[in-house]
Amino acid sequence: MAKPPLSMKPTGWFQVAWSDEIGVGDVHTMKYFDQEMVAWRTESGRISVMNAYCEHLGAHLGYGGKVVGEVLQCPFHGWQWNEGGRNVCIPYQDRPNRGRRIRTYPVVERNESVYIWHDLQGREPFFEPPDVFAAFGDDGGAAGYYPQQRLFRQGLELHPQYVLENGVDFAHFKFVHDTPIVPVFTRHDFAGAVSYVDFTITFSGDDGQRIEDVNSGVQAINGGLGIAVTKSWGMVDNRTISAVTPVDERTSDVRFMVYIGRMPGKDPARAERKGCEFGQEVIRQFTQDIEIWQHQRYSDPPALAAAEYEGFTAIRNWAKQFYPDGLGGSAAEVYAATRKG
Ligand code: FES
Ligand SMILES: [Fe+2]
């Protein structure tokens, strides 16, 4: 893949871990947005995500750092930092260094995921990460679904925007996902930081059917560039979360989660096995997309068919609000990309 002419440091909510990877007292090491980070959970169960280096002499808190009650203790000289990144104790001095602070990230745990708010300018969150159950305005909580099934692919050469562009890309379904006919979009709402896309789609029947007669579809909600949730209707009840988080200037981690609705039946174990198979099938379809995305080169301006113009223009304009310079890349890169003809 060519390095995308889009910033790999966009603003928004991004998944950095799953909640169950970080138990009480754990210090979890990771790298996102070109920053070494740690996520750690206090004794009372609260999670904190911060840059990994101690502000004293720069030890990496992910290698030997220890959770002590509600604070994180550096392995080098024992300085203690609270969940806000403030120094609260220097063990060999009677008062802490109140001025020094490790950069922390706003963090939300939702749908078994750990999301952080990333913004180069340090602004507060200006939208909420979508909840795969609550966001659709129905009462289907997690209890109505089998356990979450997951896919985790690390270090792929792709940009989060590629994944979102699926949401307007009606033509790929037939070729990538083998749908019998081309789906039709019934809603494109790109007015706010959270956008909404609905489409009618079927995975069954033959290519002789008319899309007007199809009684199934998908609703998608994009919470910025990092997190998208979907809900299906008229087919096996499923909800998905896709989360793409930039690691460095070239690569991203991709997480995909599926919940399949519980199915009634005399044999619950058998029904759950079936549910698990459906989940694996949904994951398989997502990996078909990944295969394209991880080798793709961002085309800008793209050669579009007439029917594609409106959707792609809308989503690309919408995406600009999340980039540091409002253009997607540095102005020079974007200019060069538009000229390469
Ligand atoms: S480097 Fe962390 S306490 Fe010294
Ligand atoms: Fe797709």
Defining traits:
4-stranded antiparallel β-sheet; 2 domains; disordered C terminus; binds fe (ii) ion; binds FE2/S2 (inorganic) cluster; globular; alpha+beta; Naphthalene 1,2-dioxygenase Alpha Subunit, Chain A, domain 1; 341 residues; Rieske Iron-sulfur Protein
Structural class assignment: alpha+beta
How much strand? 25-35%
Radius of gyration (CA) equals: 22 Å
Average per-residue pLDDT, rounded, comes to 93
Low-confidence stretches: 329-341
Run of helices and strands: EEEEEEEEEEEEHHEEEEEEHHH
Strand line-up of the largest beta sheet: 12-18-17-16-15-14-13
Q: Please identify, by name, the CATH architecture of the largest domain.
A: Alpha-Beta Complex
CATH class of the largest domain: Alpha Beta
Tally of extended strands?
18
Percent helix? 10-25%
Put simply, the count of helices is 5
What is the CATH T-level topology of the largest domain? Naphthalene 1,2-dioxygenase Alpha Subunit, Chain A, domain 1
Heteromolecules bound: FE2/S2 (inorganic) cluster, fe (ii) ion
Name given to the CATH homologous superfamily of the largest domain: Naphthalene 1,2-dioxygenase Alpha Subunit, Chain A, domain 1
How many structurally independent domains? 2
